[in-house]
Amino acid sequence: MAGEQSQSRVLSYTTSKMSWSFLHSAITHAQNTGSPPKAIDFNVGSPAVVILACSAIEAFVNEVSSSAHSFLFDADRDSTFISDPIHDRWDAAGIEESDLQKIASIRVDESGSLIDRYKRLLKAIDLELPARWNNLCQLQKVRNGLVHFRECDIPIVNDKDSRIRSGQKLPDFLLPLTRQKIESWPILASNPEIEGEDWTLRIATNAFSIWALEIAMTTNSYILDNLAEGKYAKHLRALYSSRERHFDHLFEMGLDEISNWKDYIYKGYDFRTHFKRPFS
Question: The whole model's pTM is what?
Answer without folding.
Answer: 0.84
